[in-house]
């Protein structure tokens, strides 16, 4: 205990000496408050933190961490289903075992498009709930009405997992799909397509 206090005081004195050099060597900059640099009881961690801030290290570390933080916040761990449009009359619904036809627009969380049936002008047809597609689709399209539009945010575990689907889908990617149900078992709901607005997708 007896040796720690002198060591801390010596570190604080060194901090003040360096701060004085910085202040006198750069007269054009605003003078910082000395209480931000000198502390009667200071730890090495405190002094290093002040020095890093003085030379801009803390700022650059923060900026380099931003993209990772943004990606983390955009990713999801559970399936998210958002209804963008639903016709007033739901005469046809998609159930497990039904053959359904779906238009879709697929992107990553950064907005980059990896596939779109809209661009091809050809909706995708498959049997719902039979494992012909990713789990996010088999679960996210259940109960959907013909003419309905949904936005699906699908976690990697219900998409392409850690392996991804190169070259467009990296491993561990969250998938975002704008979907529209066109037909169920070859049947369409009269007027449903005309009522929906593709510009929202």
UniProtKB/TrEMBL annotation:
- Is Manganese one of the keywords UniProt gives this record? no
Broad EC category: isomerase
What is the top-level taxon of the source organism?
Eukaryota
Coiled-coil blocks = none
Q: Where is the signal peptide?
A: 1-23
**A Gene Ontology molecular-function term?**
peptidyl-prolyl cis-trans isomerase activity
Localization, UniProt:
Endoplasmic reticulum
Q: What is its main location?
A: endoplasmic reticulum
Question: What is the documented function of this protein?
Answer: PPIases accelerate the folding of proteins. It catalyzes the cis-trans isomerization of proline imidic peptide bonds in oligopeptides.
Q: Which reaction does it catalyse?
A: [protein]-peptidylproline (omega=180) = [protein]-peptidylproline (omega=0)
EC number(s) in its UniProt entry? Answer: 5.2.1.8
Q: What is the lineage of its organism?
A: Eukaryota, Viridiplantae, Streptophyta, Embryophyta, Tracheophyta
Q: What keywords appear on the UniProt entry?
A: Endoplasmic reticulum, Isomerase, Rotamase, Signal
Q: Name one GO cellular component term.
A: endoplasmic reticulum
Which organism is this protein's natural source? Answer: Triticum aestivum (Wheat)
Ranges of residues in domain PPIase FKBP-type = 97-185
Q: What is this protein called?
A: peptidylprolyl isomerase
Isomerase among keywords: yes
Q: Which Pfam families match?
A: FKBP_C
